[in-house]
Each structure stands twice: as structure tokens, then as C-alpha cells.
Amino acid sequence: MSNLQRMPVRQKAKQLAKDLRKEQPDYVYLRELFRHLREELGVPVKRLHPDKLLPRVPTEEEIKKYYEAVWQSRNMKHVILIKTLLYTGVQVTEVINIKIANIDFDRCQIAIPGKKSKKDRFVPFPESFKEILAMYADTVKNKKSEYLFISSRRKPYTDRAIRKILENYTDAAGIEYSISPRKLRHFLFTWLKKQGTEDAFIQSYSGHNKPQSLGIYTKLSIDEGQEAYDDVIRKYPI
Question: Residue 57 in contact with residue 183, Cβ under 8 Å?
């Protein structure tokens, strides 16, 4: 089995997608299709222990390799987009809705609007990122857009468009599994945790509202969190 040569997963997926695309399958159809495939191939379903259901987090080497592919593209919009995801850990729906007015360049923070009338949260970015982000924001502002990331049609990016951009760089970097916005988010928070960053800051910064942590939030202001972020982000891989 160890000598078995298999087509890379992403390549096989593209091959299958090419065959299936004309049928416009929905989720239910695909779920049943792969259930029958497992039965035909005699592949048993392994029930994983809950501890093994953790998300896959890219390594530092994979992130460096991934960002190198982004940088080699010389597409400044994509460089800024992916750096924003890597530095802030915002979710894809949040990065879509970042407005230029949400960015405080003096404090190196971005206000992320709260859901269902909750208070905004503030996510930091490195001082070293401030100038290039400000110059990019000015070019977008000149296009009469209030949103930071817009398509060639001057409309805010869609969730699907951002995922496709990241997928293209996954291919360019030669990484077998997909680098998604969520994986970039997981990488940042895992990396910060390894650097000894306080849990309270990571939780408030990530937007997770765990009741057991609310008492700690009051003891850690965003300015204190910014200092902790600045101290460790200098060692960030990109």
C-alpha cells in the first residue's frame, strides 16, 4: 500500500468536477454519490474520536510557501487581501464588509461591526502594514468605493470570489489541501497562542463569546491587547 501511486486529491477533485459540472449537482446529490462510491469501493466509514475532529492548521513553512506564491503574483490587491486575513484573523464575511472608514491607521486597528446590534470589536494589524494598507485604501477610495476590497466591477467581493482567489494560490504553491480563510484564521490564533499571548485577548480579538471568558474581557482593554499583539507580531512568518 505504501508504494501505491495516487493522483493528488485536488487534481482528482478537478477531474471529477469536470465530469459532474454539466449535471449541476447539488449538495444532496453529491452526498449520495459519494456514499454509493464508498459502498462500491468497499471503503468503511471511520468514526473519529471527538479529539481527532480538530481543524487542520497550516504549518509555518506552508504559510511561508503559500505567501511566496501570493507575492510572486505581484497582484497588490491580492497581497493586501491575504495579508489582511493573515494579520487580523477576520472571517470571510467580515473581510468582505470592511469599509475604509472602519480603519484607524493611527492606532493600527480595524473596527468589525457586531452582529445583531452587538458592539463592534477591534482587530489590530502590524505597524509595518500601515503604510501599504493606507496607500491601497487611497487607490480604492479614488474609485468611489467605501469598501476596502472590490472586484473589477467596483462591487464588494463575494464570499465565493475570495475563496477562489485563495484556492488559486493554494494550487500555485503546490499545497495539497485547500488554504481557506478559516485556515488562515486558525493559523494566526494558534500561532499567537504558541507565542504566549493571553487567552482573553485571543478570544476577544477572534470574536468568540464564551461566557466563562466574559469576566476576563473586562480586565483586558483593546489598548493592552494591542501592545501584546505588537510584541509578538514582529516574529510573524510573513
Answer: yes
Q: Is the pTM of this model over 0.85?
A: no
Residue 220 maps to a domain: yes
The closest of 168, 155, 137 to 70, measured between CA atoms, is 168
Burial group, residue 36, by CB count within 10 angstroms (0-12, 13-18, 19+): exposed
Q: How far is CA 194 from CA 86, 124, 180, 191, in A?
A: 16, 18, 21, 5
Q: Could you tell me if residue 4 is inside a domain? A: no
d(CA 230, CA 205): 13
**How many CB atoms lie under 10 A from the CB of residue 221?**
12
Summarize pLDDT for 110-168 with one digit per residue, the tens: 999 877 656 788 999 999 999 999 999 999 999 999 999 998 888 999 999 999 999 99
Measured CA to CA, the distance from residue 121 to residue 220 in angstroms comes to 13
Contact 125, 225 (CB under 8 A): no
* Sequence-distant (≥ 6) Cβ neighbours of residue 25 within 8 angstroms: 33
Domain span holding position 47: 9-52
Q: Is 196 helix (H, G, I), strand (E, B) or coil?
A: coil
State the number of CA atoms in the 13 A half-sphere of 72 facing the CB.
11
Query: What are the residue ranges of helices labelled H in 21-179?
Result: 27-41, 60-73, 76-88, 92-96, 130-141, 159-173
Which strand (E) or helix (H) includes residue 204? helix 199-206
Q: Is the distance from CB of 145 to CB of 99 less than 8 angstroms?
A: no
- Our count of domains for the chain comes to 2
Do residues 20 and 138 both lie within one domain?
A: no
Domain presence at residue 86: yes
